[in-house]
Each structure stands twice: as structure tokens, then as C-alpha cells.
Amino acid sequence: MNRPRPLSPHLQIYKPQITSILSILHRMTGVSLSIGSLIIVLWIVSLSLGAESYSYFVSIANHWFGHLVLMGFSFALYYHLSNGIRHLFWDAGFGFELKSVYISGSLVVVSAFIMTILTWSFVYFF
Amino acid sequence: MNNNVMRSDLGKVQGLGSAKHGVGHWKIQRITAIGMIPLVLWFIPSLLITILSGYSVSIEWIKNPFNATGLILLIGTLFFHASLGLQVVIEDYVHSEGLKIISITFIKLLSILLGVLSILCVLKICL
What's the complex ipTM? Predict the structure, then answer.
């Protein structure tokens, strides 16, 4: 009972593949978004405290570093959203063929980039 | 467990709990995920437009009861979905039973705290 159990090969043994990378990225973006939800809390709290505290929030958010964080946040959000929809299709029993998995995976990455670029073009040019 | 011989197969596995509430957790994670899709697609453009327009426009935007409802639903669904997701990640990577229970409880209490705080701020603005 107490002898060491055999271990399965660890993650670093395997060659990185698009499927496994996208899978772990879903978790990583999920955890990042959970932490990033603090930004939404800060936004609504500062807004409820009045114009002065809100302008303080905006001045931090509008710093170049604030923009960088928000860009990362928006990309994580769009990736998690797109890949989440991909997961819901799997849960419903669709798209399990290897070819579909590759196509939907590429679609997810492309749509995450396009939505991020659209969002920030809107911020900077409108 | 010395008298295992005297116990039935069912008795031996009872209470060891493999799945516990796994199905309910799985299901509510999907339901909140589906809920997040329209909420996020509505929230992002609205937020961008109001934030870029400044303080008074943002306040007016939240004072609209439909926007306030959407915002409260978004906050509730977000923290529910996040705590379910973080729970699964903790269960997968934290192997010490005590630390696991403590961190999951901490995540759940923190989610409730942040959710209540945010919703109260929305109510304060719109009421």
C-alpha cells in the first residue's frame, strides 16, 4: 500500500501541440480574468464614490501601463469567450473530429485577436 | 478498516465520495457560461462608450434600469462563474487536503464579498 505508485509521464515530456496549448490557455485566461475582475470592482466602486474618485480611477486606467493591462484583460476575455463557446459545442457533442478541433482552435485564436484589435481601434480612433 | 471483510461492497465505498456534487457543479458552470456570452457582448461596447464619455454619462448610463439590471446580472454571474472555475483549478493542482479546503472556502467568500460590494455600488448609483 505504501510503495511509491507509478507516475504517468509529465507535461514537459510531450511536444507542445496546438490542442494542449489552447487548452491550458483557457485555464490561464480564466484565472487571469478572475484576478482582473478586480478592475471592474474598482471601476464601479470609484464611480459610486463620486466624480473625484472616478477621475482618479480613470487617470490610472489611462496611464500607458493601465492600457497595457486592459489590452491583456480584453484579449484574455475574448479568448476565454471564444474558446468557451468552443467548449460548449464539445459539451453538446459536436466538433470532436481532429480536423474540426484544429479548425475551431485556429478560429478561436483569430477571433480573439480580431475582437481585441477592433476594441482598441475603437478606443484610439473614435 | 480492519474488519473490511465484514463489510459489503457498497459499505466500503460509501462516504469515500468520488463525484459528490460533480454533476451539479459541471451543469451550473455551463449555465453561467451561457449567461456570460450575451452579458459580455452587451457590456463591452456599452462600457467602452460610457467610459470614454466621462463621469456624468457613466452615471446616467447606470441610472437606466435596464443597464443596471444587466450590470447586476453580469456581476453576479461573473463571480459565480469565476468561483466555480477557480475551484476546479484548485482541486486539480492543490494536493494537500487542508490547503485545498481553505483556499476554496477563501475563494467563495471573497467572490461573495466582491459581488455584494459591486452590486451595492450599482444600487447606490441608480436608486
Answer: 0.88
